[in-house]
Each structure stands twice: as structure tokens, then as C-alpha cells.
């Protein structure tokens, strides 16, 4: 049985990927310090509590479980927080990944699936964005992930590290079976915030920025269902078992949704009109991020199946209602 060690596997995307790996017949080990993850989201194998920056703890987990592949999700991922506290992002995301890679190679583990981001592109010079688009991040979160990509490339040339690097666009939605979902403290993600405004009395959804150069003035994002993302990681792991080298893929749909269109969709799916307020742009927010994802389809056979906006909202709404 193929074994995968999943760093950050108690978090939102990591836990959905653990389920996808398990359903594909992989043995799944979660490695997480639970600072932003949830113990009850670990359902598909053992949990090792540890920090990716703790070299001894990482080395011990690698010795014990001898994974064929490491899938790396352990990162802070709030753009606004990264602008205010960049040290958190360079210490945890960038330095922590350096420790992880060093310990992997010492242990003879040379296959890495890396959870990267479209934030590494910065403000697009063309759209949709393909993998060859220039990378020039505009916030510390994006830079922290960009630096990891450069490290992966360097370790590939110097030490034979093999990697699939997946640049997500906007992950959203929840497990259609309702076993796991999206939880953040504090919650800053647009879909859960909009749903809370629709179904919880007294909540108001704030649209941050109405003066972007987009079709209705609000930011455009390419929303991809987390279950589709999870399937891409399984396919990426299978590629690493076959092929050497570093392989980069965008994960998106190629369709952008404005924040106003998202608000309308949440109202339509929930049956409740959202109270809306308007605020200024958040620091570090590009006006539009839409993927060209054809490479993932050509090379991995990956096609999103759950990522129309109503399905995304419907699965997330079911999750939040189940917890009320």
C-alpha cells in the first residue's frame, strides 16, 4: 500500500485530501500541530502532533512511517494577516518547509506534493493565467509560497527532489458527504462569511472593494471545489510514483465569479437575502484571478466535477446548517 504523510492534514484542504487519498487506497498519516487544524477532522489514519519546523519531530515521523510521498499543506494562508505579520509567514511557511525538505531528503523520501497558490502570480498581466505567467506576488503570503517553489526547484537540481506543485485558485465548498468542512478561527474566507450572513441573524456580509476594474467593480475569483482539489492531489501523487522532476499545475475552472455574483448565488441557494455592507479594498488583493487549467487536464487527467458556484455553495451551506 502506498503511504502518504500529510502535513497540515487536520486543516480545511488537508483533511479533504486525506479523505481522497484514503478512498484511493492510500495509507494516510496526518502530521499537524493543531494550531489551525482540528483533531476531529483526522478520520483517515493516525495523527502525529508536531510542527514542520521541529526537525526532530519531522525526522521521527518519517522514520516511523516511511512514506512514499509527502503532501505538504501546513501553512498560514490569510493574506491580510500576512501583510500585518509577515514574520509569521516567512517563519512558518518558508522556513518550516525548508526544515521539512531537509528532513525528507535525509530520510530518503524524495517525492513532495506542494500546496501552492495563485497568489504567487500577483496582479495578472494576462487572463486566464497559465503556469508560464510571470510570478510577482504582492503580499507576504504569496511571497512565502513563491520562495518555497524556488526552493523545490533548487533541491530538485541539487538533490533529486521530485515534486508536483499545485497552484490553487480559490478553494471553496465542503465535503458532499458532510464528514468534514471548512472551519477557520477567525473566519476570513468569502464563502463561509456570506453563508453566515444569510443564515445567522445579525450577521452582515462586507464586500471589500467596489472600485476594481472588473465587470461590476468587485473582485473576481475562480472558485474551485475542495473535493476537486483533493482529487488533483491523488492524481499528482500517482504522477510522482511514475515520473521524476518538478511539475507545476494550476487548479481552477477558468471561470471567474465576482463578489456581487457570489452574494447573489448565496441568496439564491440559501433562500435568504444577505444583508450587505461595503468596505474598502483589503491590502494585497488583486482585482481578478482566473486560471487556465488545461495543463492539469492534459497531464493529470484532472477535470473539476463539483465546481459550479451553486454546488460549491450548496455543499458549504449543508455543512454549516449541520453544525447550527
TrEMBL record:
Keywords: Carbohydrate metabolism, Isomerase, NAD. One of its GO terms (biological process) is galactose catabolic process via UDP-galactose, Leloir pathway. Residues 4-252 form the NAD-dependent epimerase/dehydratase domain. Its EC number is 5.1.3.2. InterPro entries: Epimerase_deHydtase (IPR001509), NAD(P)-bd_dom_sf (IPR036291), UDP_G4E (IPR005886). SUPFAM superfamilies: NAD(P)-binding Rossmann-fold domains. It catalyses: UDP-alpha-D-glucose = UDP-alpha-D-galactose. Homodimer. Belongs to the NAD(P)-dependent epimerase/dehydratase family. This is UDP-glucose 4-epimerase. The lineage of its organism: Bacteria, Pseudomonadati, Pseudomonadota, Alphaproteobacteria, Hyphomicrobiales.
Amino acid at each position: 500500500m502506498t503511504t502518504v504523510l500529510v502535513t497540515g492534514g487536520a486543516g480545511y484542504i488537508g483533511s479533504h485530501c486525506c479523505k481522497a487519498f484514503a478512498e484511493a487506497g492510500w495509507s494516510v498519516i496526518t502530521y499537524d500541530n493543531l494550531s489551525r487544524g482540528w483533531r476531529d477532522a483526522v478520520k483517515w489514519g493516525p495523527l502525529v502532533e508536531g510542527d514542520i519546523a521541529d526537525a526532530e519531530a519531522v525526522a521521527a515521523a518519517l522514520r516511523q512511517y516511511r512514506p512514499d510521498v509527502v503532501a505538504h499543506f501546513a501553512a498560514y494562508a490569510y493574506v491580510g494577516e500576512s501583510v500585518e505579520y509577515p514574520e509569521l509567514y516567512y517563519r512558518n511557511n518558508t522556513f518550516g518547509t525548508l526544515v521539512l525538505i531537509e528532513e525528507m531528503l535525509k530520510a530518503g523520501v524524495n517525492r513532495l506534493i506542494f500546496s501552492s497558490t495563485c497568489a504567487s502570480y500577483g496582479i495578472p498581466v494576462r487572463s486566464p493565467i497559465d503556469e508560464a505567467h510571470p510570478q510577482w506576488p504582492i503580499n507576504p503570503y504569496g511571497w512565502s509560497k513563491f520562495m518555497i517553489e524556488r526552493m523545490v526547484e533548487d533541491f530538485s537540481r541539487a538533490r533529486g527532489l521530485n515534486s508536483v506543485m499545485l497552484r490553487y485558485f480559490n478553494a471553496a465548498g465542503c465535503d458532499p458527504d458532510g464528514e468534514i468542512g471548512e472551519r477557520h478561527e477567525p473566519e476570513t474566507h468569502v464563502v463561509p462569511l456570506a453563508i453566515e450572513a444569510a443564515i445567522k441573524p445579525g450577521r452582515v456580509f462586507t464586500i471589500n472593494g467596489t472600485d476594481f476594474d472588473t465587470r461590476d467593480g468587485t473582485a473576481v475569483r475562480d472558485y474551485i471545489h475542495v473535493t476537486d482539489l483533493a482529487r488533483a492531489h491523488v492524481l499528482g501523487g500517482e504522477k510522482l510514483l511514475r515520473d521524476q522532476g518538478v511539475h507545476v499545475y494550476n487548479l481552477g475552472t477558468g471561470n471567474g465569479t465576482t463578489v456581487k455574483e457570489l452574494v447573489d448565488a448565496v441568496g439564491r441557494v440559501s433562500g435568504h437575502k444577505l444583508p450587505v455592507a461595503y468596505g474598502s479594498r483589503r491590502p494585497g488583493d488583486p482585482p481578478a484571478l482566473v486560471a487556465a487549467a488545461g495543463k492539469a487536464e492534459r497531464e493529470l487527467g484532472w477535470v473539476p466535477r463539483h465546481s459550479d458556484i451553486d454546488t460549491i455553495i450548496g455543499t458549504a451551506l449543508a455543512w454549516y446548517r449541520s453544525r447550527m
